[in-house]
Amino acid sequence: SGRGPDDEPDSPTRRLRHAFLHHLFYTQGKFPALATKTDYYLALAHTVRDRLLQRWISTANEYTKNGSRTVAYLSAEFLMGPHLGNNLINLGLFDDARKSMSELGLNLDDLLYEEEEPGLGNGGLGRLAACFIDSLATLEIPAVGYGIRYEFGIFHQTLVDGWQVEKTDKWLRYGNPWELARPEWSVTVKLGGHTERMQDNSGQLHVRWVPNRTVLGVPYDTPILGYRNNTANTLRLWKAEAPEAFDFAVFNRGDYQGAVNQKVVSENLSKVLYPNDEHVEGKELRLAQQYFFVSCSLQDMLRIMKTQHVPLHEFHEKFAVQLNDTHPAIGVAELMRLLTDEHQMHWNQAWDITRKTFGYTNHTLLPEALERWPLELFKRVLPRHLEIIYEINARFLDEVRQRYFGDEARVTRMSLIEETGERYVRMAHLACVGSHAINGVAELHSELLKQDVLKDFHEMWPAKFGNKTNGVTPRRWIALANPRLTRLISGAIGEGWIKRLEELRQLEPFALDPNFRAGWREIKRANKRDLSDVIRKRCGVAVDPSSMFDVQVKRIHEYKRQHLSALHIIGLYHRLKTNPNLEMTPRTFIFGGKAAPGYWMAKLIIRLITSIGEVVNRDPAVRDKLRVVFLPNFSVTNGQRIYPAADLSEQISTAGKEASGTGNMKFAMNGALTIGTMDGANIEIREQVGAENFFLFGLTAHEVATVRGNGYRPQDYLDGNAELREVISLIRHGYFSRGDGELFRPLVDSLVNHDPYCLFADYQSYADAHERVGTAYRDSEDWTRMSILNSARSGLFSSDRTIAEYCRDIWNVQPVQVPILS
Ligand code: 26Q
């Protein structure tokens, strides 16, 4: 009849189209003539949601039937990124959806960009949690992600006069089609007040916590699909609400204002994500948030045990609970409280269960990022937990004293309570004592943990310690973000790599095939053209896709050293101005990343970068060789356009400071070469891709420690480096601030006088490495070969590998296959 398969009555494309029109009408209540882009997005989202509910129900059914051992991943952050595209990929419906939309005159990409991404995280730690739940579902591991349903996620960053300005993130504005409220599983959480003790008839002592307020935790569930399997796990995020009973009580006293106010106070708990990472502030609301979601989650696990008739003493057999940093570490004390106070279990048995339940992942070595809570604050919010922590501590320190007879200095160091000066609860110590496994997130980081931050704990319990090098999901970061590359790779080696990333190795021989290289290069070029369009729209700057795209995107932090790159760009600028005929590989420097709103120095670094851009981009003497742009609002969505378009990945943290990094992995997978230090996972990336395909520079972690230990003097490096002196002098004299010599003074003074992150010590080495980069880029055939090898050898950095290791070494969980339900 001449009809193609897509015109068959029940072809996938046709069914999608029908379902879509159905939802446009019955869910959005619109005719095409009145429909907005948001309506179209929501209609498609609901169409996809219908297709995943089947899997969600059969998964829940299968897990319940088998009483499967389950991973509970506790994290204050899940930086999920948009769901629609990812779900289409995992369902295998992406191409069908594109087709059915285009048959309706709609462009799928336009609809995908309509989704407001759930930015419920700051950066690496939150995004890692998102990659992990993706991999757990793909590996068919029974798992739940537990966290907070923040009403406002990470702020939206805009640039005004080159400065960061924050806007609230109203991600729920148009509703969220991916979540389902489960009010029937709400739980009550107590806060504040005091404790009372009483004896029962048999003389047994009971502790009663009399809170001064309670809040209701309402779970909102989002299905998390595995890649082309039938698994749909759950992300369960808690929203705080006022308990109804309280409402009534106040209302009956005629205090309507008070009742409404109570509602406001309760809902505050899940109102907003704290936007500072790697720098903790002892804020009462933050502690309450942490306790809120942890208590909700542990109570939820107890409820699940009850419905599945699992006896309480098997808690650790039913659940493996992972603490994503110390943010949920209060869970150790909370589980003890639930088992002993609320379920009358004896201390020793409860403690045994608790330790077998928890694993703790550390994500930082920076002292300012280690959580400690002032004792008074802690007692005000969690009086009972402070008592429990004292009890844990007393028993623990007895053990320390026995083990290390007479070593009171060690006892002081290891105590869960810091008592020198103001007193604090040390959350990392609580997490260590309450867990059976402790891990860092890259080899170097795990080693430094053992030698430094957690040295005493490692000496006491060496077997508890391990390493789990981070990974990222190739579904979102290659298949979804880089469809062109995905097609090329799959054409060469099949599609297996999407689930088994090590298969990318099969690309190695293609690095020597000129045809394949040409295809690879053309894809990078097309991705760069796409990004150039975005840059033109967002920054008003025209960049040349044939220039080298040199990219640094990540949170703005002094230790990550965005300003080292800034200094070097000024160095290049200076070279070009003094020698107009200088041969230089044309470069476009692309920056992106948010600064914590209260981190003044980070905001000044953004201003420095935008200032350099303003000068460089309009200087006819250099603009053909140098462009500098700061792309506002770096997010998961923007990352998906940036990583595929990068030639060079900047991973330039001071060695020993970046626990792992994960952006470094996303770049390498997408064929960028790295310029980087011996820090975090850079070391392992270099080892995998080969030293000859990686631009290394800078001091090692050991050398940094030595240099600093010998009384580091940045001025000496300045005296010894003419270019660096010129760079500093240009900034000082207001060259990038219209003659204002004050603007960047805090930044310059900090560098010249302290330079806590050794920028000056690494400057020349960095500049030299960039010289090698420039030379290498000019040989485009060889660069392409190295680019292919970077991708081909990045298989280790799939979060599937990471999760398989957690399952084997820490969680002891097995996959459970979900049958197709018809
Ligand atoms: C804690 C208390 C109060 C307020 C905020 C915080 C807070 C919030 C977020 C502290 C730290 C964070 C985030 C840390 C983080 O993202 N760390 C990164 O984790 C990645 C995943 O393991 C690593 O790759 C990065 O190296 C590490 O910096």
TrEMBL record:
Enzyme class name: transferase
Modification N6-(pyridoxal phosphate)lysine, positions: K666
Keyword Secreted: no
InterPro entries cross-referenced by the UniProt entry: Glycg_phsphrylas (IPR011833), Glyco_trans_35 (IPR000811), Pyridoxal_P_attach_site (IPR035090)
Cofactor: pyridoxal 5'-phosphate
PROSITE patterns: PHOSPHORYLASE (PS00102)
GO terms classed as biological process: glycogen catabolic process
Known function: Phosphorylase is an important allosteric enzyme in carbohydrate metabolism. Enzymes from different sources differ in their regulatory mechanisms and in their natural substrates. However, all known phosphorylases share catalytic and structural properties. Allosteric enzyme that catalyzes the rate-limiting step in glycogen catabolism, the phosphorolytic cleavage of glycogen to produce glucose-1-phosphate, and plays a central role in maintaining cellular and organismal glucose homeostasis.
Name of this protein: Alpha-1,4 glucan phosphorylase
Originating species: Panacagrimonas perspica
